[in-house]
Amino acid sequence: MKQKKSLSSANVKRFALLGVGLIGLGGSVSSMAGYQVHSPGAMMTLGKTTNPSTILSFTGNPAGGELLLSKGESVRMGYFSSLGIDVETGDVDNFIDEIDELQDALDNDNLTLTEANAIKDKFNAILPVMGEDAKVTVGMGLHVPLMPFAIRSDLLGGVLSFDLQAAGLFDISFLDAEVTVDTVNADLATDSSLYVKGGSILTGSIGYSREVWEPTLFDMESKLYAGFQTNVYAVSLNKQVLGLENILEGDEVGDAVRDEFDENTVDTTQVGLDFGLLWALPNGQLGVTFSNINEPEFDYGDIGINCSGVSDQVRQSNCLLAQTFSGEIALKETAVMNAQTTIEGALYTREKTWLLAGAADLNSTFDLVGRESQYVSASASYFSNSYVIPSLRIGMSQNLVGSELTIVGVGTTLFGMVNLDLSASLDQIEVDGTKVPRQVGFNIGIEEKF
Questions:
Q1: For residue 326, how far is the Cα from the chain centroid?
Q2: Predicted model pTM
Q3: Strands 375-382, 193-213: pairing kind
Q4: Tell me: the pLDDT tens digits for 42-81?
């Protein structure tokens, strides 16, 4: 009897949950100032703009502190300002179903040589497409209670801001290899594998902003604000190659993944620097943010190295498979938080009840698992400044590179304090005959009323 070593949809789901769990053991859609796996709170909808309705704008342009503390206000804070998750998939329809079909073939002890060759031909046409596009990425973010926190300092003549947030990022992609047939037993085999990258990021930030110029233009008063932010990143990164034929029914894969995680996770602490300018007019504003100017770097654990010294059979096999795919993946890798320049602008009523805003990244960056992004976004929001009447917002963003997804976000603020935001891509894939968005996100938070 042939040993069952195939990958079913249940295995994929179990493995994805395991990966999410490993993120927790270790410690956006788009990144804003500093580095963020998940756009927090209302920023999921509003994009990379400074909006006075949410203290989470501190995570964007560091010059915005003076705008976010209203006249006469000395302290502003989040209560439990942000908890959220988003999931993004590659552009492949029903790839789980295709893997299920391959499972049935791999588990079938009664195939004829003709049937086995037909299956081989079919999947050798399908697997390269999956190798190109089959992918799932999960990002999670959490701000520590009371954060962000801002206080006006008369001594320093500006606003000090503090933030502490934790995030996890988990990415699984497909490495394709041809299916072969044992002509004696009509057994199918493949070196196709899952490539898993993930980590945890704990970020502590201290910022300072102040007014630096107050010009009068066209009989309009205006103010120019400047700010900087220092981010301390504690990052744990791990990656693994897992052969499909090594993902077994039972606990073997879980033990092997956990052992590899324990022995191959690298912890790195680095500092990132952000700087921003914000020019405020009676009915509008313009700003620019330079994030991670010094481009901090973080190491992954090596894979495919010294495989002969690995005693566990499953781990050794995965180690050798990593060597097999060394032309497609990096066995040694350093992730870089690329510097990025973002411009923003907004038009609003004098009391900032209605606000139209937009932002654009001027260069592309790569996140810690290698996804490329460069976003442009636009949003419209109504802030009721009431505990009874809900505030509303809607936004749209487009990734100009990488996934090239177009994402729509909607959100509301209830009771003047509770933020609920949802996002979904216009791009869809088919799953079990149903069209679903390639990206979905959710965020909830409670913060002090503006």
A1: 25
A2: 0.87
A3: unpaired
A4: 999 999 999 888 999 888 899 988 888 877 788 999 999 9
The answer to whether 169 touches 369, Cβ cutoff 8 Å, is: yes
- Residue with token string 């999670």: 140
220's tokens:
């309009």
pLDDT of residue 30: 47
Q: So where are the chain's domains?
A: 9-40+90-367
Higher pLDDT, 444 or 313: 444
Tell me whether residue 232 is exposed, middle or buried, using C-beta atoms within 10 angstroms of its C-beta: 0 to 12, 13 to 18, 19 or more.
middle
Q: List C-alpha distances in Å: 143 to 17, 155, 382, 386.
A: 22, 28, 24, 25
User: Which pLDDT does position 354 carry in this prediction?
Assistant: 95
Q: State the Cα torsion 216-217-219-222 to the nearest 10°.
A: -50
